[in-house]
Amino acid sequence: MHNEQDDKMQQGLVPVISKLILVIVVLVIGLITMPILFYYSNQPDKLKDIISNAGAGGDEAKKDAVAYWTAPDVSSITDANQKEQVEYGKELIAHTAKYLGPNGSVLKISNGLNCQNCHLQAGTAVFGNNYGSVASLYPKFRARSGSTENIYKRVNDCFERSLNGKAIDTAGKEMQAIVAYINFLGTNVEKGKKAEGSGFKDIAFLDRAADPEKGLPIYTAKCQSCHQANGEGILNSDKTEFTFPALWGKSSFNDGAGLNRISNFTKFVKYNMPQGVTHQSTQLSDEEAWNVSAYILSQPRPHMNVPNDWPDKSKKPFDHPFGPYADSFSEKQHKFGPFKPILEEQKKKEEESKNKSIISTKK
Hints:
It contains 15 helices and four strands. The protein starts with a helix and ends with a helix. Strands 1-2 form a two-stranded antiparallel ribbon. Strands 3-4 form a two-stranded antiparallel ribbon. A hairpin with a 6-residue loop joins strand 3 and strand 4. It is mainly alpha-helical.
């Protein structure tokens, strides 16, 4: 009898205990999630990034199912002379300053950066500003110069802008080796086609301007240990090249370089920095990438006088940081955003121009 009563009591307690456990679990989950929700409610851009990235998961998987361009292996070259030249070209891209920097063994014509500081892994990294499409797409018309450019012109643009230096002789050994290497990297890309994963990976625009002040704590936490508090980078022991490149100041790229456009710099940072991340595994949110880029690009850097750039002002990129422009938006907005209104006006003007051209042709 006593056992039967005990059994009934135990059976009656089971649902009570189950309910208590459920209440405790709900309370614990609430205690964990409430601070997170409170944090993101005060940072809507971050929350938007998380929701956007979660929703785009399927699309990212599809993209990553694509076979990204892979650089051909230099060791596969059978011609001894070609192999030697291509290997020298690769060495010049990886260690430019050692040969052509302030203490260069060949010439002293650049700022101490290496080409691969901007073109990662000697120009072979997926979405690391690689050279995969250079041979297939050049020569091509470039609105910045208003002319058709060949690879030699493109390389010297980098020397004069990104390396804040002087152009090198197009017939010289160094230029010939660099071009041979770039052409070799493009041997597996069909002429006229763009290699998958070349250039930069797109990033969503903010609905506001990128904020240099919000970028400072991100720089301090994520970038400063390598690039230093004053952005001066770290030189190697013999001072021939940077172990970690200067991001501003006299040894960095000048204001005529492509990376001085915030959209380019932000894409580069988002999918390649801090060191070790990839386009498939990033650390920074979109908002953080825009803000830290704004902070870095708000710092002083060498000036390049380029009065002949963008002869057709209507072809200037939306984020070109210097006027004059073909629109009424301020220089500050062109530099830091918001960019959507600028892009909308550019699109409207392009459509108007296209319609005028159609009408003119019919007449």
